Amino acid sequence: MALERHGSAAADLPRVMAGFETIRRYRNSTGQIIAKLLPGDFYVTSSDEVLDTVLGSCVSACIRDPRRGVGGMNHFMLPRPSGNGNDTWDNVAGRATRYGSASMEQLINRILKAGGERSQLEVKIFGGGRVLSSLTDVGNHNVIFVRDFLKQEGLRVVSEDVGETCPRHVQYFPLTGRVRVRHLNSRHSGDVVSHEQKYLTGIEQTPVAGEIDLF
């Protein structure tokens, strides 16, 4: 399962909204436009695109305004405890909330800026698996966080596929609201876990500034 970003947008793809030029986009074998999200990304579109990501303990919120035809997805992971040998959640709660809330706020604000109406937004959430055994169930804390955030914002969650112990491959079709979720087996889990561990380490070192058609 390749998680790294490769290449650049093809010349024949429609222009992205400002600020999303670094998101990898390409056409698949059927001509469908795919936008590939990595940890820390979010993306908003009003075009016919598929937003694609792989989640372990990370969470993605898929949000759209079905009337205005605009929607997007994020992919966030909350930081792990650093350097003190104590991996309780309390040690990272402050930084975790900052990163999670920033991702959610940016996604929602860009959808509204693109013409979405807050009262019309529908939300689906995915991920939060228990895949990082060295940590205090970060995936579950991610799920709790995003549920609480959305409740406080008054946004409705219309469906979700979260928790358990497996990574997920998620594809979101923001124009229709359809989501395809594939629970990944152990053959892919090692790659996902390794990638998330590297991402968590990077956050700590950076100053704080079978396919199932479910929905």
Present the secondary structure layout.
Elements: E1 24-27, E2 33-36, E3 42-45, E4 49-55, E5 59-65, E6 70-74, H1 93-113, E7 122-127, H2 138-153, E8 156-162, E9 168-173, E10 178-183, H3 186-205, E11 211-212
Helix pairs in contact: 1-2
Describe the structure in your own words.
By secondary structure, the chain is α+β, with helices and mostly antiparallel strands. The protein is built from 3 helices and 11 strands. The radius of gyration is 17 Å and the shape is globular. This is Probable chemoreceptor glutamine deamidase CheD. Keywords: Chemotaxis, Hydrolase. It comes from Povalibacter uvarum.
In short:
One of its GO terms (biological process) is chemotaxis. By secondary structure, the chain is of the alpha+beta class. 27% of the residues lie in helices and 27% in strands.
- Global structural class: alpha+beta
Enumerate the strands of the largest sheet in spatial order, edge to edge or round the barrel. 1-2-4-9-10-11
Largest β-sheet summary: 6 strands, mixed
Helix content: 25-40%
The CATH architecture name reads: 2-Layer Sandwich
Which overall shape is indicated by the principal axes computed on the Cα atoms? Answer: globular
- What count of helical segments does DSSP give? 3
Average of the residue pLDDT scores: 79
CATH topological fold name? 60s Ribosomal Protein L30, Chain: A
Q: Which range does the strand content fall in?
A: 25-35%
Low-confidence region ranges = 1-9, 79-98, 205-215
Total domain count? 1
GO biological process, one term: chemotaxis
Enzyme class: hydrolase
EC number: 3.5.1.44
Catalytic activity: L-glutaminyl-[protein] + H2O = L-glutamyl-[protein] + NH4(+)
